[in-house]
Structures are given as structure tokens and as C-alpha cells.
Amino acid sequence: MRVLVVEDDPDVGPDLLRGLEAAGFVAEWSRDGEDAWFRGDVEEFDAVVLDLGLPKMDGLTVLKRWREAERGFPVLVLSARGAWTEKVTGIEAGADDYLAKPFEMGELVTRVRALVRRAGGRTSSTIQIGKLTLDTHRMSATLEGAPVRLSPLEFRFIDFLAHQGGRAVSAGELSDHLYGSGAAAEANAIEALVLRLRRKLGQGLIETRRGFGYRLSGTGT
Amino acid sequence: MIVRSLRIRLMLGAAVAIFSALALAWLAMTLIFEHHLEQRLEAELTAQATLLLTDLSRNAQGLAIDGGPADPRYDAPASGFYWQASGGGSVLRSRSLWDQTLPAASDAQPDNWTHRSTQGPFGQRLFMLERQVRLDRAGPVVLVQLAQDVAPMSLAITEFGRELALFLLLLWAALSAAAWAQVQLGLAPIARIRRQLGLMQQRSEKRLPRGSLSEIEPLVAEINNLADAREADLNRARRRAADLAHSLKTPLAALSVQSRKARAAGAADAADGLDRAAAAIQRAVDWELARARITAVRQDGAASSAALPVVERLLGVLERTERGAELVFEVEIDKAVRVPMAADDLTELLGSLVENAVRHARRRVQAVADTTSGVALLIDDDGPPDDARAAVSAFKRRGRADEAGGGLGLSIARDLAEAAGAHFELAMSPLGGMRARIAWMREAPA
Fold first, then answer.
1. Is domain A126-216 classified as CATH 1.10.10.10?
2. pLDDT digit string, tens, across residues B91-119
């Protein structure tokens, strides 16, 4: 597992490398934005840890250029300011997770592992449900060609229903699938989830079959 | 005793000055009145004396009078109206003198009537007119005297003086009241400036309104200049503090590197010490940054932003966190809802509230806008009721929730909300967990 660490601080950078290598990653260090952008553009990494305050080219610009070039590796942003505005900007620029400085090394390793696992587990395929297209690799959705932002939970919900071949699934079964079978049935949470998805994707996509549960329209009878 | 009140000083000064002026006026008017009465009396007596002279003659027995003054008061004894002619060994008197005589002349002139004040008979004080005349060329010098009791005149003067004094006292009271009103009016701008200075202290971006009285205007301008300078200093200091706080973040990360190195080398005590110090610096840095933001919010009175995009962008971030990925986010905010805050500041405010809700929620987090009166944003979670109750009561009691569970975040959120003119409160949520409510009473500007 190759991880690119982009950090200009001479203490924090090597420490990140040590921490990631101790956790079994092959970590490489880039000290400025231009170098990072170039390496990310031409080499393959399983994950990138990206500091935002970088010399030569700032982290957000590097990230945007990677995403414009369709470099899809997961990126964990290190934010020195810890401000929400910056987190939001980072995520919208294409980051997959953020971590505010100063951070615990253990926390950082856990996050990087989770990012790699999420990216590695995806098989690149798309599912078409009416006007909705799901990209199971990127866990993203487009509605009539326009991107729709879905939370992981929402994506799993739609993805699960899409694989039921038109069968109506009860709230209890959905709850088991989303939260694990040990958890108590959460009918309220499922209802709220459906409500929010209908807002995002339109009223017609998710049908309620009284007495049976939920199904996606346009996926069989 | 030094009087510390400008108002009392001005009032005392005015009262004393008015009183002195009126007392002088009283004195002068009384004297003029007295002089006037004396002149009238002299003129009257002179007219009567001339008539008396024409009635006087001399025969072999001595002085004789033919008729005499017609006024009956010259016939009533001790009436206060007297005449007397004396010379050549004989004396003629008015009947009113009875058995008394008028005092002899001291320096009566032959060519002119002179008057003097003298003690007369019957214990009366007299105003006396006298002249030496010769009734014929060969005859002796005759002293003609006419006198009148001054008691009625003195009484008139006394009464005049008393009534005048009463009137002037009333005038003094009226003028003092006018002076008081003038002092009040004159000092009113000072009281107004004091009130406005109080407001300035509360909200540092406030300034004294211009365009007041021309005497006050320079003072207002100077105070405003001073406030501008002071605010600029403060802003500079805050910016420096915020810059300093930012610049400490990376060294803090480096410090934790050193701490890990120390721990790896077996110096656990040193590592603990470093960690504690780093945590303390971190808290100070967070507070400083929050305060800089709160100040900026307070100064940005005209800001306004739509609530829904801010909430959606925040949820976009939180949905990616480990906790957030398991939660359902319900958003009941109309596109048209705007709040009087810049989008960045609203992001920080709602960010800490939604993050706190995500931390405690089991399944659901709600963000609702209530526009029934003004605008209120509600952030609800369905976390454990006991925890929420404890956090709410701790927040109400100490003004902050427990430090470990995002208490700093909630305190900062409250300060941010209040800086933006909102009311901030924590309560129990109908979902079971905690509800944070940020309410602007009036309709937010569009």
C-alpha cells in the first residue's frame, strides 16, 4: 500500500512517514505543492495525506488539479485551521476525509486505513435505475446527468434496494442491513432516510408498498 | 465645600446672581420712590406757602393773616399739617399746632424756599419748608414755615417696599426656574452623549451620531476619532493574536511528534508533560481563534446568508465522518430562509452544533428552520436523554457544557450566535436527545 504524504513541516513530515510505515504502509514524502501535484499525477498511490498549507502550490489547488485529471485515489486532508469553512471547501474540492492539526497518529492511521479499505472494496460498475445512475466505485450518483451528493448511508440504502430486483423490502430488514442485525429496528430513522432521499432524488423513485416496505420504481414489477 | 455637580454649580450661580440683581433693583426702586414722594410733597407745600404769603400782612399789633390756607387739616389739632409765621416779636400759627411751636429756623434763606427734616411737636417727624421774607421794606424779617408729618409718606414707602419685595421674590423664583430649565437644556447633550458612550461600550462598532449642536460637534468628532483609533488598535491586536494562534498549530503538531519520540525512547513522564502542555496551548489557540471570529461577527452587522446551502454543505462533510456515515440527516429548511450572518460564520456556528449532535446521536440528526416569529434554527439529535439532560443543565448552570464533550464548541457557538444578535439555548429535543436553538427575534434581512 503506497501512501503519499504531502507535508512541508520538517518534524511532522518524517513523523507521519514513521507512523504510517509502522502501520504497514509504504509512505513517500513530498514537501511542496508542485512536487506533490506532479507525483500524484504520474504515479499510482493507494491514498494521499495532504496538508493544505504548502509552499509553491497550496493543497486545495493540488487536490482540485488531481480531481480534474480524474486522479481518483482517496485523499485525507490535514487542516491546520480546523475551521468548518475550510473542511467544507476541502471536501468539496474532492477530499475524502479531513483531520484537524494537531492530530493523534493513531487516529490518522485509522482514517487512512478506512479510506484505503473503502476505495479497495469498490468494483467499478454503474447501475441505472430510471434517471438515476449509481457509480459503485466512487459511491456517487447522478440524476439525469447531474451529480447528486449522497451520504454513505443513503448510498447503501439505494444500492441495497437496487439489488433486490424490484422486491419490496421492509423497514426492519433495511434497518438490519444498514445498522447490523444486532441493532433495534429503527422505523423512524428509515422513514427519515426515505424522506431525505425523496427530496434529493425526486418523489417517484422510492415507492412505499403498504404492508410490504420500500422498493425502487423501474426495477421490475 | 466644593460642589461636584456642574448642574448645582450653574443653578447656585444663577440663583445668587439673580437674587443680587433683584435686591439691588429693590433698593434703587425704593429710593427713587421715596425721592419722588418728597418732590411731590415739596411742590405741594411750596404752592400752599405761596398762598400763605399772600394772605400775610403786618399791622400795628404785629403780624396778621387774612384767611389763611383753606385746607381744614390746618385747623385740626396735631393733624400733621402745620404752618407758622414769626418775626418782629409776634408769632402766627395754624390751629393745628395748638399750644406748640415749630422749631426755629436753622439756615432758612431769604430768597428761596428750603426744606429739611426735623423733629416736630406731638412726637412727629416733620418735612418742613421755610423761608425768610420781609412783608414790607421797613419791616422786620418774618420766618414763614410750613410742615407736614412724614409718617403717612413713610408708611407708603414701607408698604411699597414690602409689596415690591414680594413681587421681586416671585420674579426671582420664576427667573430661577427659567435658569434651571436652561441648565437642563444645556446639559441634555452631555447626558445624551453619556448614554451613547454606554452603547459604544457595548458594541464597539457604534459611533456617536454626527450633526448635533455646533458646540458639541467637535467633542463628538474627537470621541469618534478616539474610538476609531482604539478599535483599529484592537483589531490589529486581534489579528496578531489570530495569526499567532494559527502559527502555533504546526509547531503544536511538531511538539506531539517530539512527545511520541520521547515516549518511544522510554521517557513516558516527559511525553506526558509535553502532551499536557500541548493540550493547554491547543485550548488557548482554539479560544483565541474563536474570539477573533466572534469579534468579526459582531462587526459585520449587514451580513446575511441563506441557511439551507450552509447546512447542506456541512452535512456533506459530516456524512463522510465515521459517525456521520451511520446517521440519517433530516433537513427541514426552506430555500428562502436567510439569517443575518455571513455564510462563513454561520458555517462555523452550525458546524460545531451539528458536529456535537452527530457525536451524540444514535440514528438521526435534524436541522429545522422555524419561521413562525423571526427566524430560528433548531439542531436536534436522538442521543441518550440522560446525557442530553446532564449537558443541558450543566450548560444552563455554568453557561457551558462539560469541557470533554465538546463544551468548548458549544460555548463558542453560543458566543458566536449572541455576537450575531441571536438568542442561543439548549433544551431537550422531541427526538430524545439535545436541541440547540438559535433564534433571531425579528425577521432577518433578505
1. yes
2. 888 889 888 888 887 677 787 888 888 88
Q: How far is B366 from chain A (nearest CA, A)?
A: 9
Encode pLDDT of B389-419 as tens digits: 888 888 877 654 444 444 567 888 888 888 8
Nearest to B282 among A102, A189, A195 (CB): A102
Q: Flag if A84 and B258 touch (Cβ within 8 Å).
A: no
CATH ID of A2-119, from 3.90.1150.10, 3.50.50.60, 3.40.50.1400, 3.40.50.2300: 3.40.50.2300
With CB atoms and an 8 Å threshold, state whether A91 touches B325: no
Nine-digit cell string for A70: 480524474
- pLDDT score for A220: 47
Torsions phi, psi of B148, nearest 5? -135, 140
Query: How far B257 CA sits from the closest chain A CA (Å)?
Result: 6
In-domain check, residue B423: yes
* CB nearest to B257's CB, from A11, A88, A97: A11
Paired residues of B370 in beta bridges: B376
> Is B314 in contact with A84 (Cβ distance < 8 A)?
yes
Domain that holds residue B239: 203-296
User: Chain B contacts of A19, Cβ < 8 Å?
Assistant: 260
Name the pTM for this structure: 0.57
Name the domain count of chain B: 3
- Residue A102 with chain B: CB contacts under 8 Å: 249, 252-253, 255-256, 278, 282
Mutating which of B256, B305, B349, B363 best tests the A interface, going by the most A Cβ atoms within 10 A? B363
Contacts of A15 in chain B (CB under 8 A): 257, 260-261
Task: Say whether A102 and B331 touch across the interface (CB within 8 A).
Answer: no
Q: Which residue of B has its CA nearest to A152?
A: B325
| Residue in B249, B282, B326 closest to A153 by CB | B326
Q: Which of B278, B296, B314 is the last residue of a domain?
A: B296
A77 CA to chain B: closest CA distance, Å? 12
Residue B213 and residue B126 share a domain: no
C-beta atoms of B315 and A151 within 8 A? yes
Q: A180: distance to nearest CA of chain B, Å? A: 11
ipTM over 0.95: no
